[in-house]
């Protein structure tokens, strides 16, 4: 045998992970979205699966293949992401990780026909409304024993992440400096700081798949102290 088998110590656990961007329709041919590649969420799903967890990956549109052995549910909008997660967690999950870059707003009304640029105005206004906060809603509904979020920030990373941890009722938050071009969004490497209410960890900058293995370990250790 070439590789030592990874311990199946998460057997019997159900992990639900969101990944990728959401895509919010403007009209039949246009949408609002973001640059999330989905790599971090997919790497976390693969890492938890490798340790024996049963993993449901609720994913927005990405270029990635579902990791082997992972149940992927493909959605487009934030609202669909929330319903898919609720459905996956009818029986409470052990761990929920919100790695998706959920669009904060969607169209107040999606145009049923392609919008035309007729008229003299050089300006155009779209009316947007706030999307549901997927992770905050699920946290309130107590659908997972351990809730883990991400915080994408461009400044005051730790302070903003801490306030998100509290506001959304999370156990852990993984803070990401998205102003750096060498890590994070659409990149193969990532560097993060993980925060709980009273502790913090900073794993080295490394590939998203190596980091995912460390994050799954950290979450597993955190679970056992809860
Ligand atoms: N999130 C979510 N639903 C939303 C927005 C965000 O579930 N509608 C989750 C993300 O998946 C992530 C966490 O909340 O785990 C933080 O996302 P982020 O965009 O950093 O925070 P927001 O609360 O949207 O605040 P802002 O974008 O204004 O910084
Ligand atoms: Ca946001």
TrEMBL record:
EC number, as in UniProt: 4.1.1.36, 6.3.2.5
Protein origin, superkingdom: Bacteria
Region described as Phosphopantothenate--cysteine ligase: 15-226
This protein's UniProt keywords: Decarboxylase, Flavoprotein, FMN, Ligase, Lyase, Magnesium, Metal-binding, Multifunctional enzyme
Functional pathway: Cofactor biosynthesis; coenzyme A biosynthesis; CoA from (R)-pantothenate: step 3/5; Cofactor biosynthesis; coenzyme A biosynthesis; CoA from (R)-pantothenate: step 2/5
Chain positions recorded as CTP binding sites: 104, 114, 132-135, 150, 164, 168
Domain (DNA/pantothenate metabolism flavoprotein C-terminal): residue spans on this chain: 10-221
Protein task: Catalyzes two steps in the biosynthesis of coenzyme A. In the first step cysteine is conjugated to 4'-phosphopantothenate to form 4-phosphopantothenoylcysteine, in the latter compound is decarboxylated to form 4'-phosphopantotheine.
Entry similarity comment: In the N-terminal section; belongs to the HFCD (homo-oligomeric flavin containing Cys decarboxylase) superfamily.
Protein name listed in UniProt: Coenzyme A biosynthesis bifunctional protein CoaBC
Organism: Marinomonas ostreistagni
Gene this chain is encoded by: coaBC
Residues of the full protein shown: 179 to 404 of 404
């Amino acid at each position: 045998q070439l590789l030592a088998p990874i311990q199946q110590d998460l057997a019997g656990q159900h992990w639900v992970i969101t990944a990728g961007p959401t895509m919010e329709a403007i009209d039949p041919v246009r949408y609002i979205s973001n640059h999330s590649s989905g790599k971090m969420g997919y790497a976390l799903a693969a890492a938890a699966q490798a340790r024996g967890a049963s993993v449901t990956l609720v994913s927005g549109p990405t270029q990635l293949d579902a990791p082997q052995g992972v149940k992927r549910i493909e959605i487009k909008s934030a609202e669909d992401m929330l319903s898919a997660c609720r459905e996956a967690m009818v029986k409470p999950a052990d761990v929920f990780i919100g790695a998706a870059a959920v669009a904060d707003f969607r169209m107040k009304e999606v145009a049923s026909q392609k919008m035309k640029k007729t008229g003299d105005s050089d300006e155009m206004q779209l009316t947007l409304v706030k999307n549901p906060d997927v992770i905050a809603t699920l946290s309130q509904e107590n659908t997972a024993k351990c809730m883990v979020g991400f915080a994408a920030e461009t400044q005051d990373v730790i302070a903003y992440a801490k306030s998100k941890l509290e506001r959304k009722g999370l156990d852990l938050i993984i803070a990401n400096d998205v102003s750096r071009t060498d890590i994070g969004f659409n990149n193969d490497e990532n560097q993060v700081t993980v925060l709980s209410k009273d502790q913090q960890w900073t794993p080295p900058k490394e590939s998203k798949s190596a980091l995912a293995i460390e994050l799954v370990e950290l979450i597993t250790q955190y679970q056992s102290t809860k």
